[in-house]
Design goal:
Bound molecules: zinc ion
Number of domains: 1
Radius of gyration: 14 Å
Strand content: 5-15%
Number of helices: 5
Distance between the termini: 25 Å
Shape: globular
Helix content: 40-55%
Order of helices and strands: HHHEEHH
């Protein structure tokens, strides 16, 4: 964990327990989410975790039935979605890529799927903010 003390990490684990419950069978994914969240600026983390509209959930994709990636679920309150849907594969793929994807999705949630500063395009904005947090898009 980059920024936080062990006490803060323990507190973060408690706060996250409710969100991460759906990842129980995917322990590596829980750890990856924790690594990313603990690296975020405190202000950002509190903004997300203290918002009742913020959700993290596991994509219930069934192989063979097809599903577009990264669904944005509409959030109640009309101020943009704050729902992060993570795919189970993020528990198994390369760690750097997984951290980037999780940070990118958290950036969408933080930005309410909108732009960031002068960046209007939500995808570019999420990439830029993830990069700013230390999780650059890996070279492909
Ligand atoms: Zn995106």
């Amino acid at each position: 964990m980059r920024n936080e003390t062990s006490v803060e990490i323990a507190e973060l684990r408690r706060i996250l327990a409710v969100h991460l419950e759906s990842f129980e069978r995917l322990a590596p994914l829980q750890e990856r989410v924790l690594v990313v969240l603990s690296a975020l600026p405190r202000k950002v983390r509190r903004d997300l975790l203290q918002d009742p509209r913020f959700r993290m959930t596991l994509d219930d994709f069934v192989p063979g039935e097809g599903r577009t990636v990264w669904l944005a679920c509409p959030g109640p309150g009309g101020n943009g979605s704050r729902c992060v849907v993570l795919k189970p594969q993020l528990a198994n793929c390369g760690e750097t890529f997984a951290h980037y994807v999780i940070a990118h999705e958290l950036a969408h949630a933080y930005l309410h799927n909108g732009g960031w500063g002068e960046i209007g395009d939500p995808e570019t904005a999420a990439d830029a903010l993830a990069d700013h947090w230390g999780f650059a898009r890996p070279a492909s």
